[in-house]
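Marked as duplicate of an earlier ticket. Keeping the data here for the record.
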Amino acid sequence: MENPRDKKKIDTENQNQNPPIPEELKFEPEIADNGEYPNQQKDLIAELRKKLKKSEDEKKEYLLGWQRAKADYINSRRQDEQDNELVVKFAEAKLLSELVPVLDSFDIAFASKEKTTELPKEWERGVEQIRNQLRSVLQEHKLEIIDPVGRPFDPREAETIGFIDTGNSDEDDMVISVIQKGYKLHERVLRPAKVRVAKHSGPERT
């Protein structure tokens, strides 16, 4: 036989697990004999559905607003990163463009063999080592030499300072020699090469 104390204990535990519903939240719709709700309850249900629909619309609106704000933030960060990269590249390009004339001076000095042979070999080797170190540093920073010899003249990378007549029509508009080297950084021309271009002056080939 079930002990009344045990039954009372079980009832108490059930009450602790399921606290009573406040009176103002209780809603037990009445159903008429024909199976329909009374008009007052129909209005209440319609009002609750309207509020539920409004809450769902507001939730969607808040979600869309949050998504737009997140997208704007990501785009803003991406734009800031791109701007910072441009600033770094611009500063790097400015510095390297100021070092290019120094490299030109080394090239001019070593191009004159008569003058270098008059200097002590140790001095010549030391200066050449400095030039190679400078060239190595510039190459590490992605500085590239523009060497258009043997290629068709490209005004985006070279500047014409003279023409050379040629009887070979295949050489027409080809770069024959470079008077001053050109340089580019990150595919951007820092200084165009100064070149001489061939011009065909003979009879046309048949």
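See parent ticket for discussion. DSSP finds four helices and six strands in the chain.
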